[in-house]
Structure formats: structure tokens, C-alpha cells
Design goal:
The protein is mainly beta. The chain is 5% helix and 36% strand. The protein has 1 helix and 21 strands.
Amino acid sequence: MSNTNITTPLVQPSQNDLNGGVSGDGKKALEKYVRELFKAVNGISYFTSGNALPTSAANLVLIVPAGSAYISGYHLTWAQTNVTLPSSSTSHIFVKLIFSGGLVSNVQIEDNTSGTHPADAVKYGTVVTSGSAITSATDQRLLEGNQRIRRAVISATGSTSWIVPANVTKLRIRQWGAGGGGGGGGGPDGTYSGGDGGAGQNGGYVEVVQAVTPGATVTVVNGTGGSGGGGGAFNVSGGANGSAGGAGGNSTISGTGFSFTANGGPAGAAGPGAAAGGPAGTSIAYTPNPGTATQTTGTADVLVHGGGRAGGTRGSGGTGTSNGTAGSAGQNAVTVIDY
């Protein structure tokens, strides 16, 4: 057996620079091809470890914990790093790769006040400074399966304007509509009981994956849960009727080219009071009538009637000389945006 060498072979990747190139070409090729392989297998950059950013400090020095991440095909680690932030501002914190001559030469922590996402980077979070002290921090390394993504949870009722971040072109939006309030129970007459009120109904639910433009505004309106109805009072001349609950407020998600609504759940009816000398008040039978979900423009992936937040429980009819109990309020709407 014999072996014959091939003249000036090209082997990639190679640490040995078999083709007679400049020293280091093989290492560059190795990094390049391993990086491209990793990107093909998993093209998403995300954190794999690292503690949350500190939420306060008596100075402007942010202590970024040691951690590791997968960025643009590279797995990297870094030691705890101190970063001095500007005073009285909101700073956006990123971990990013630095390249020199085609190779990764360093890992840096970038802080900027614009929120602009650097190339070859992952966002750690935002930090607020007031005067010369750190006053709060928001971690933005949330999970989707085994991948790190960012998430905005909007729980405030009323209208919220949410700005699409830089480099983001698609959102997953989920909205749980507000529940209706439960009706109050009717009052007794001393012998006969009042009737139970009706339960509040669930709100609607909307889920959509929506194409967006960086910098565009998404308007989120979260409805308020319906109020619970009051209980009817005891009265020997006939117990008073309870009060009906309040309907849940409607919730909407809208932006350029899309508009969806998760309607609030209907209210529970009032429980009747007992008539003087009977009969007892008749309890309100539960009849499903949930809040609906609709689309005006755009196409939702999921529209569920009654898939939203829970309605309030019904109030019980009073017995003996005890008043009927009040129904409970429905839950407020909540919207979650993954990006």
C-alpha cells in the first residue's frame, strides 16, 4: 500500500493552513464554519445563564452578573462587569460581540438610552437611574420553550401605547378580555330564603402573530372587570332583590393593518328576593353567554368566545334574617406581547 500526496490541497476547516495561506486563516475558517453550522441549527440568539440585574444602587455603577449566552452562532461567557450609567435616564443593557479581522476579539456590555439593538447582541434588560442612583431594573431574558425572547405583560386597565422595538418585525399578541361581575343574591323574609344571583361570564380571547414595523405603535386597551352586584336586604314584608353585576369592559389590540377585540363578559343577573310569606326567591340558572372575540382588520390565529378572564362568582340568597351576599367582580383584562 502507498499514499500519494495531493499538491496544495484545500481542507476546510483547518487549523494547519494546508493551502499555504496567511497564518491564522485556518482558525478563521474553523470559526466561520462552526458559526454557520450553529446558526443553521439554531439561528436565535439567547441567554443561557446569568442572574437578574440589580434593581437599586446608591450610585450609577451597574453590576452586570457573570453569565453566558448564545449570540449569532457563538457561545460565550463573561465575568461580572461593572458599568457606569448616565444619571437620570433609562438605559438599555446589551451583551454584544466585537469582531476584528474576521474573528471575535472581545465581548462588551453596551448601555444606550435609545433602545437601539446593536448587531450581534442580546438584550439583558433596562435600568432606570434617578439623579445619581439606580432605582429600578427590568429583566428581559424571558423564556419561550428553551429559547430566550422578550415579553411585555400589560396588565394596566385603559389604553396603553406600546412601541415596536428596533429590529422587531413580528409580534405574538395574546389578549384575555375582562370578565363580567356576578349578580347579588336576593334577601329573605325571615322564613323563606332569597334566590342566588347569576354568575358573571368570562371575557373573550384573541391570539395573533402579527407582522409589524419597528417604531410603529400598537395600542392596547384592557377592559376593567365588571363590578359585583349587591345583595338584597332582609325584610319581613318581602326580601329585596339583589343587584345585577356589571359587564366587563371591552378590550382591543390595534395597529397598522390590524384590529382585534376581546369583548367583556356579560354580567350576572340579580337574585330575586323572597316574597312575604313565601315562596322563596328562585335562584338564577346558569346559562353560558360568554364574551365574544372579533377581528375588524387583519387575521387572528385564535378567537375564543369565553376564553378570557373569569367572571365574578354569584352572590348567595339570604337566609333567616341575613341579607343576600354580594356577587364578586370579574377579573380585569390582560395582554401579553412576545417579540
